[in-house]
């Protein structure tokens, strides 16, 4: 594979609150909502109760790695939304 073609993709890791990791390789132009949906499907979780963060910033499903200027091997944190105290 050429280096230019490899630049079109990004590897990312989603890590949950328990430290469990799941890895993805997507195009930089792919909406992160697709990754979020796949992650939630594999974990049997409702996407409505999970929040995703990269470097403290909340990720929205319509955003892409290119828009967020993500580097290769970026880590995304998956946090279950909790209400009340």
Automatic annotation (TrEMBL):
Q: Where are the transmembrane segments?
A: none
Keywords noted in UniProt: Nucleus, Ubl conjugation pathway
Keyword Nucleus recorded: yes
Record localization: Nucleus
Q: Which GO terms describe its cellular component?
A: nucleus
Work out whether the entry's keyword set contains Nucleus.
yes
Q: Which residues are in the Ubiquitin-like domain?
A: 10-85
Q: Which PROSITE patterns match?
A: UBIQUITIN_2 (PS50053)
Q: Which family does it belong to?
A: Belongs to the ubiquitin family. SUMO subfamily.
Q: What is this protein called?
A: Small ubiquitin-related modifier
